[in-house]
Amino acid sequence: MFSILRPYIFSLDPEVAHDLAIKSLKANFLPKSFFNVENEEMLETNILGKTISNPIGLAAGFDKSAEVYNSLFKFGFGFIEVGTVTPKQQLGNPKPRIFRLEKDQALINRLGFNNHGSETVSKRISNNHPDGFLGINIGPNKETKNKEDDYYICLSRLGIHAGYITINISSPNTEGLRDFHDQREMKKLLIGINKIIKEKKIDCPIAIKISPDINDNEIGSIVELVSSHKIQGIIVSNTTDSNRENLSDIKKNEAGGLSGQPLKDISTNLIKKFYKETKGKIKIIGVGGVDSGENAFEKITAGADAVQLYTGMVYKGPGIVKEIKRDLISILKKENLKNISEAVGINA
């Protein structure tokens, strides 16, 4: 059905198409059984202390304000991450701010954390219990002077509702956000995060989402800080504001974060480097260019315990999850592996 609708969807402005998708998902009309696959037990795995049916997740950015996560679970995702959520509602950057690069199977966005704010999201999740493992991605408001405080506010407000919380320090669309990759700034932030966890008795795992544009010499210090401050997961990675030189589409020089196929090898190589440093002791979630069972398996064998997608679903539709699961099961059988967890890091 998506292949029939796609020309119409792609004739719309990307943000209009996205808003239409959110409205459609609120109808919640698709049966979950439509997206089931045989032998899915081979994909069962553990991520951030939770056993999930499969390692395919939806990345933050699609359901920014936690409006349709239960409808999205029906597509067969093993887990879903909503957000980025900021303390106060914000409109984000001026439009247009999402661009399809069809020739490159990519997107560029400069949305700027548009969302309904942490109070609304907190009430929404409280009134609509998640049907699966739900992560909440948090970040600071654009005008905030002290960004650390915004993370603490969101963590305090949303931690009770989350399967896990992601600390987003990696979007290229919020000025100064990536400064938290600096060792001193990250340490200060993580000390504060642990203080809030202790004070508020928050009992959910914490992951940190990093930029694909870091230097190799930063990886060791990031892993050291994450380990010493009891952060359970690293999400590798967010969008990139570089890597434009080999793109074909005329929109390639739009400002913002690039996602999709051009990010695939960058993120996979980064996953390998982080896996070698973490030695499997910290869970890695791989993001960037996932749109098939083959490249999901590449990320898992590079060291990812699970993967997330977003741009792939824009181009291939909601059936992509079923397709990836089916392909992964086929690959596991071919490789004589009984479970997906056996594949983690075997090519790192």
Provide structural commentary.
The structure is a single chain. The protein is an alpha/beta fold and 348 residues long. The protein has one domain (48-343): Aldolase class I (TIM Barrel, Alpha-Beta Barrel), CATH 3.20.20.70. The protein has eleven helices and 13 strands. It has helices at residues 2-11, 14-26, 69-73, 118-127, 147-158, 183-199, 216-228, 264-278, 293-302, 311-316, 320-334; strands spanning 45-47, 50-52, 56-58, 79-85, 98-101, 106-109, 133-138, 164-168, 206-210, 233-236, 257-260, 283-287, 306-309. The strands form three sheets. Strands 3-4-7-8-9-10-12-13 form an eight-stranded parallel beta barrel, surrounded by four helices. The chain has a three-stranded antiparallel beta sheet with strand order 5-6-11, with no helix packed on it. Strand 1 and strand 2 (50-52) form a beta hairpin. The longest helix is centred in the middle third of the chain and has 17 residues, at 183-199. The protein is globular. The N and C termini lie far apart (38 Å).
In the predicted model, the low-confidence regions spanning at least 5 consecutive residues are none
Average pLDDT over all residues = 95
Q: In total, how many beta strands?
A: 13
CATH topology, what is it called? TIM Barrel
CATH homology superfamily: Aldolase class I
Strand order of the largest sheet: 3-4-7-8-9-10-12-13
User: Which architecture name does CATH use?
Assistant: Alpha-Beta Barrel
CATH class, anyone?
Alpha Beta
The global form is: globular
What portion of residues belong to β-strands? 15-25%
Q: Give the number of helices.
A: 11
SS-based class: alpha/beta
Helix content: 25-40%
Radius of gyration from the alpha-carbon trace, in angstroms = 19 Å
Please provide the ordered H/E string of secondary-structure elements: HHEEEHEEEHEHEHEHEEHEHEHH
What is the straight-line distance between the termini? 38 Å
Major beta-sheet overview? 8 strands, parallel, barrel
Number of domains: 1
